[in-house]
């Protein structure tokens, strides 16, 4: 008879100690200067917390954006932590990070927290957080259309092997007129009507940035209405440039589907919402392009089960993460449970989407806790059949979820 307590403890220890690759973040290494966000003021002004703060103070919205960072952080702290209990996932996350970094959350002393983070060099800070969060590497979100970021790449920033690249295509695929103007200015022979040498020139642009960034995959976030095939600039670029490039370079294409951009523009980065998307679009792509590899995550809870079913049909489809509004304990348990039940261990359970270095500490502490809970339930069900679960089998499974599935899907070793 299995000893449930022993099994539970063993699974928890393995999940908490297995290092992982965080396959989607918005983090940058110290070499990227001000693009690297870290410390308590950046934690408190995370756009999730800004949205929650402005719910209580909608009249402050325009004033908020004119405030200096420290004043914004003070307002968030006062509104969400002092005037009421910080029960939301994003609030709890700030406190988990402070606690795991050894700070006293009962003091509620922002000045003390500011001193602590102020005493860390960027390099020390990366080492501390990667050690605390059990991070092998993170994948960044790299936008070749961002003038600030482009400068760092062209200055050949010193490589920190824990920060891997992903080539982000939102401007190219979702803002074609802006992209066409940018490409023309950069010397590529493209035109808004996509005539002449437009497609081969965009291919040259991709090859140039692929050489500069060496991205693990190409990525794009897409609206709930995303359809393919489609006679739109996005549909034509995907068919004529992106999918052939990905197939020939072996790079997966990450589709992050279901974002309704700026439903409330006044909230800026916090102004995006969610919509239910069409699984047929993913099925069409996987069926029509069997040589391409698709990393897919949906933003709507309502798309999760059909993504699992679609993944059962297509080996070139890798579901990943509990994205954004789904990155909460309840949703992680629900989504991971259905994935284990329908896909076994052939998926990538989570990414952090971290924007602030210190978020890795809480996002992965919280996710590991929920993953351990769901895995324990499934392993207990297995053990109840008499199936043996030696420690090295559990460790093998968890390493698959935490980095091996990703590197095998990429066809490389990280
Ligand atoms: O498009 C994306 O990569 C999203 O993750 C957005 O960046 C979003 O604002 C976010 O940070 N979600 O967690
Ligand atoms: Zn993101």
In the CATH scheme, what's the topology name? TIM Barrel
Order of helices and strands: HEHHHHHHHEHEEHHHEHEEEHEHEHHH
Percent strand equals: 5-15%
Report the C-alpha radius of gyration, rounded: 22 Å
Structural class: alpha/beta
Q: First CA to last CA: what distance? A: 39 Å
Overall mean pLDDT stands at 97
Number of domains: 1
> Which small molecules are bound?
D-arabinohydroxamic acid, zinc ion
Percent range of helical residues: 40-55%
What's the CATH class label? Alpha Beta
| Individual helix count | 18
Main sheet characteristics:
5 strands, parallel
CATH superfamily: Metal-dependent hydrolases
**What quaternary form is this?**
single chain
Work out the number of β strands. Answer: 10
Shape: globular
Lateral strand order in the biggest sheet: 4-5-6-9-10
Low-pLDDT sequence parts: none
Task: Give a verbal description of the structure.
The chain starts with a helix and ends with a helix. The chain contains 18 helices and ten strands. A five-stranded parallel sheet has the order 4-5-6-9-10. A three-stranded parallel sheet has the order 1-2-3. It has a two-stranded antiparallel ribbon with strand order 7-8. It is globular, with a radius of gyration of 22 Å. The chain has 414 residues and is an alpha/beta fold. It has a single domain, classed as TIM Barrel, CATH 3.20.20.140. The chain has helices spanning 4-17, 40-44, 47-56, 61-66, 69-82, 89-100, 110-118, 122-133, 147-154, 170-174, 176-185, 198-213, 233-249, 279-288, 304-313, 329-343, 359-383, 391-410, and strands at residues 20-22, 135-139, 163-164, 167-168, 218-222, 253-257, 259-260, 273-274, 294-298, 317-319. The longest helix is centred in the last third of the chain and has 25 residues, at 359-383. Helix 13 links the parallel strand 5 (218-222) and strand 6. Bound molecules: D-arabinohydroxamic acid (HDL) and zinc ion. Zinc ion binds next to loops.
């Amino acid at each position: 008879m299995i000893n449930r307590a022993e099994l539970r403890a063993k699974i928890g220890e393995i999940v908490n100690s297995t290092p992982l690759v965080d396959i989607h973040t918005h983090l940058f290494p110290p070499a990227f200067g001000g693009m690297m966000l870290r410390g308590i003021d950046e934690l408190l002004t995370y756009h999730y917390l800004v949205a929650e703060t402005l719910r209580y103070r909608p009249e402050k919205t325009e004033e908020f954006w004119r405030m200096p960072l420290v004043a914004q952080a003070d307002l968030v702290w006062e509104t969400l932590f002092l005037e009421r209990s910080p029960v939301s996932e994003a609030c709890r996350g700030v406190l988990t990070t402070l606690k795991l970094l050894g700070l006293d959350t009962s003091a509620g002393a922002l000045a003390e927290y500011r001193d602590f983070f102020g005493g860390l060099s960027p390099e020390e800070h990366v080492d501390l957080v990667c050690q605390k969060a059990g991070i092998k590497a993170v994948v960044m979100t790299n936008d070749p259309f961002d003038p600030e970021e482009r400068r760092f790449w062209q200055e050949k920033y010193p490589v920190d092997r824990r920060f891997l690249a992903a080539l982000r295509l939102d401007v190219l695929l979702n803002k074609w007129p802006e992209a066409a103007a940018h490409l023309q200015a950069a010397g590529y022979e493209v035109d808004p009507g996509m005539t002449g040498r437009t497609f081969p020139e965009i291919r040259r642009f991709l090859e140039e940035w692929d050489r500069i960034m060496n991205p693990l995959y190409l990525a794009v976030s897409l609206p709930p209405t995303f359809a393919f095939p489609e006679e739109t600039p996005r549909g034509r670029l995907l068919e004529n440039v992106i999918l052939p490039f990905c197939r020939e370079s072996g790079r997966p294409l990450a589709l992050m589907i279901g974002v309704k951009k700026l439903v409330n523009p006044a909230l800026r980065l916090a102004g995006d919402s969610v919509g239910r998307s069409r699984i047929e679009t993913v099925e069409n792509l996987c069926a029509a392009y069997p040589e391409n590899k698709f990393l897919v995550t949906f933003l709507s809870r309502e798309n999760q089960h059909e993504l699992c079913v679609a993944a059962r049909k297509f080996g070139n489809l890798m579901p990943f993460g509990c994205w954004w509004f789904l990155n909460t304990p309840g949703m992680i348990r629900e989504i991971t449970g259905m994935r284990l039940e329908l896909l076994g261990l052939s998926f990538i359970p989570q990414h952090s989407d971290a924007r602030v270095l210190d978020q890795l500490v809480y996002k992965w502490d919280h996710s590991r806790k929920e993953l351990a809970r769901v895995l324990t339930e499934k392993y207990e069900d297995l053990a109840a059949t008499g199936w043996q679960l030696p420690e090295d089998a559990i460790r093998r499974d968890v390493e698959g979820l935490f980095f091996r599935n990703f590197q095998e899907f990429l066809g490389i070793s990280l």
